[in-house]
Design brief:
alpha/beta, 2 domains, elongated
């Protein structure tokens, strides 16, 4: 059996990881539902799908996104500033807990 922990912030992620380590359980992370990892029985799956914050800084042409953010959210928040991601896939932003991405001026 796999235990699933839905998290909404970095403190939840840290607490879930501490709990799993204390119990000697393996840990895996699923950001937007496209995880390809196979979990061992007794493992803890940390689901970051509800961590979907996106902030756009038009001055620096950069964005910050949490692990559960979808590219659609990045595009929606960047477009009002005439910006767009350099590249994106149909589903989720890559599975980093937090990162910055550069935006470029939209040609549209």
């Amino acid at each position: 059996m796999v235990g699933v922990v839905g998290v909404v912030g970095e403190q939840d992620v840290a607490a879930a990881e501490r709990m799993a380590v204390a119990q000697g359980r393996a840990v895996s992370v699923m950001a937007t539902g496209h995880s390809s990892s196979v979990l061992a029985d007794g493992a803890v799956l940390i689901n970051t799908g509800r961590m979907n914050g996106v902030e756009v800084n038009p001055r620096t042409r950069s964005a910050w996104a949490e692990a559960g953010a979808r590219w659609r959210q990045v595009v929606e928040r960047a477009a009002p500033h005439g910006l767009a991601p350099l590249a994106c896939r149909p589903a989720g932003v890559p599975s980093f807990l937090w990162f910055r991405m550069m935006l470029m001026a939209s040609a549209l």
